[in-house]
Design goal:
Chain lengths: 320, 354
């Protein structure tokens, strides 16, 4: 059977592709599904008085109800889909690129360079993500403070607040606009990709068919295109698919526990958490506070996980 | 020297070397910030960030060699770490190392009970599921493992809290009842080790023991479910591969009974790969422990970064926490490695044969 046909012949793959299509359509059609408030554009739209701290059930003003502070759940859910997809794809591809370059260069150079680079890569395995996320944000904070700015964490919607008495230099503004969680995830996720590409390059360097390819006049570019990429990209693709789901869940986790990150889904849950687990909270009575964002996070993870499994089976060369 | 001791020492040296390498990379990353910013790490007690004058900062830069080349700076920083001066945290009003050490027993307790629950259960369920694939146990194992990996721990803990704490009142978040904390501060309950389950037994207080378990139950289950699913899946797939190996078939032909085959001939062989992968996931496990601590409001090691990340920046606390958590991961990997060497016959033979 041809690969695409076999891929589509399994129901989990069709299910995952269908869910992915829904996510992509929602992300693409976000402006049409839930237009932004022209006065206050943003992922969070207020549909009532800010001072009203009770969540209200779905009505025709807010399709999925509101959170405390009258934040529209549907609006944040739709725009959060766009954010989640973008975040996942950027992080996974960034990690793939970084890992491919480091792994391939180390393998190509060989010898002590390879040893040093791959040992450092191994060291990253012992680095807990949560520490990296906290540390990078503190580094940004202390840099801005030493510039004479004021920085503090944890305002419910913006995440962090930064003030300058003067116009900050350009690079500081760049520093303020990068997402620390994104940087950390890329920095810790590239390791498996580096190992993968490293192994491939080391194997290829020794293999007879590459020597034969060279002796037939094929240059490095040809070897990379014909031999390295097909062999390494297949497993890399599976890892990319799984990672996209995993990083979005991690981002939502960090946002939920208040360690930064811009996951709209995570913020929805953290704003509404007191109506689920606080005194007087009730999961069934205030379901719209909890269920929509939860479903979005879980389904997003499941989609990419299933796609990863499906791709793993479909791309396995021993099975074709 | 006995071979196992030799192996242990070698793994220990390896862990220390890893720690040096990681802190070198860490400090190299830290040098991206200007020296004036790094001086914040050395601001002593009683000097709030806003009161630190320009001259004071310059003096710190001079004293701590923050303008010098990388290796010199790293050396002075690492020397301070080794001497135990990890800086002073303004948000905790405490020395960073003291704050971390004081909270370690709570984290260790959570980690210990979670591992105690998840490792045997993960290995056992993976073994049974893989031994009889596609039977009812395998099917239910796979559905439960799917749920375990599909539901992120932070969502699972919301659900668990909503049901068992808000609705039923069986279990509770946070570390202990208020009454127990009062008793500890009054001195009628002696906190010998800081590990509350152990302490309540040492005090002969079964009521305190029960209430501590009541607080531990939900975080332990949350933490164990996800990693149980991962470990069980790995074990299941390696059992499925091992089940038809020649040595198992030969043993069966010799008349060895099935339970014996499963326990002695397959389980031993599978233990190695499963625990090795668990060691590779040590960093994820430690991150998971911290996340669960934060959600359930447990005053463990993670409290240090919660306090550092809640309003004012607190770089000494964050850096100390990072180094400390790396040490925790390396420690966990070390323990797993040694445990593996004791249990896995192949690795044991490798050590014992000269």
């Amino acid at each position: 059977m041809r690969r695409p046909t076999r891929f589509l012949s399994r129901w989990p793959n069709r299910f995952a592709l269908g869910l992915l299509a829904v996510f992509v359509v929602v992300a693409a059609a976000a402006p049409a599904l839930s237009p932004m408030d022209p006065k206050e554009p943003g992922v969070f739209k207020r549909v009532g008085r800010v001072t009203d701290l009770n969540p209200h059930p779905p009505d025709d003003k807010a399709l999925l109800g509101t959170l405390p502070g009258q934040v529209d759940v549907f609006h944040a859910l739709v725009w959060g889909t766009r954010g989640a997809l973008a975040f996942g794809v950027v992080v996974a591809l960034g990690a793939l690129l970084l890992g491919a370059i480091v792994g391939a260069v180390a393998g190509y150079a060989g010898g002590p360079v390879n040893n040093l680079l791959m040992r450092t890569t191994d060291a990253f395995l012992a680095f807990p993500l949560i520490a990296a996320v906290a540390l990078v944000q503190q580094m940004v904070a202390m840099t801005i403070q030493s510039m004479g700015g004021t920085y503090w964490f944890h305002s419910p919607f913006a995440g962090m607040n930064i003030y300058f008495d003067f116009t900050p230099p350009l690079w500081t503004r760049f520093l303020m606009s990068v997402d620390p969680v994104m940087i950390c995830l890329i920095l810790l996720l590239w390791v498996p990709y580096a190992r993968l590409f490293n192994t491939q390059v080391l194997t290829l360097k020794r293999s007879d068919f590459v020597r034969a390819a060279y002796s037939l006049g094929g240059g490095p570019a040809w070897v990379i295109r014909r031999h390295l990429l097909p062999n390494a990209l297949r497993p890399a693709l599976v890892m990319v698919a799984t990672d996209i789901g995993a990083v979005v869940i991690l981002q939502a986790t960090f946002t939920f526990i208040g360690l930064g990150g811009n996951s709209a889904w995570g913020k929805l849950l953290s704003i509404g958490r007191d109506w689920v687990i606080g005194p007087g909270g009730d999961l069934l009575r205030y379901w719209w506070v909890f269920v929509p964002a939860t479903l979005a996070v879980i389904l997003f993870g499941v989609t990419w996980n299933m796609l990863g499994d499906g791709l793993h089976d479909a791309l396995d060369p021993r099975r074709s | 020297m006995p071979p196992l001791l030799q192996f242990t020492l070698r793994r220990f040296a390896y862990a220390v070397a890893s720690l040096i390498l990681i802190t070198m990379v860490l400090y190299a990353g830290f040098m991206l910030t200007p020296p004036e910013a790094r001086a914040m790490l050395y601001v002593p007690k009683g000097r709030g960030a806003e009161r630190v004058g320009e001259n004071f900062i310059q003096r710190i830069i001079q004293e701590k060699h923050l303008d010098d080349p990388y290796l010199v700076q790293y050396f002075y920083w690492a020397r301070d770490l080794a001497r135990g001066s990890w800086g002073y945290s303004p948000t905790l009003n405490e020395d960073v190392l003291a704050a971390l050490l004081r909270r370690t027993p709570a984290t260790l307790e959570l980690a210990f009970y979670s591992l105690l629950l998840l490792v045997p259960l993960g290995l056992a369920s993976g073994l049974i599921a893989g031994w009889h694939p596609r039977r009812w146990f395998d099917r239910s194992f796979r559905s439960l493992a799917f749920l375990g990996t599909a539901i992120p721990p932070f969502i699972l803990s919301l659900v668990l809290l909503a049901i068992f704490y808000v609705r039923l009142g069986w279990f509770a978040p946070s570390r202990s009842d208020l009454a127990l904390e009062v008793e500890i501060s009054k001195g009628t309950f002696h906190a010998f080790t800081g590990i509350l389950t152990l302490d309540s037994l040492l005090n002969g207080r079964l009521d305190a023991f029960a209430s501590t378990l009541r607080h531990l139950a939900l975080p332990v289950v949350t933490l164990a479910l996800y990693h149980w699913a991962v470990l069980g899946r790995i074990t299941r797939s390696s059992v499925a591969g091992e089940r038809h190996k020649e040595h198992v078939v030969a043993a069966r032909a010799r008349g060895v009974r099935e339970p014996q085959l499963m326990r002695r001939h397959t389980f031993r062989a599978v233990l190695g790969p499963s625990l090795t992968l668990a060691g590779l996931a040590a960093a994820a496990l430690v991150t998971g422990i911290f996340v669960v601590e934060i959600i359930y409001d447990i005053n463990g090691v993670s409290r240090v970064i919660v306090s550092a990340m809640s309003f004012e920046p607190d770089p000494p606390a964050a850096l100390g926490f990072t180094v400390y958590s790396v040490i925790m991961v390396l420690g966990l990997m070390f323990v797993l490695d040694v445990a593996l060497a004791v249990f896995d016959p192949r690795i044991r033979d490798e050590i014992f044969s000269p």
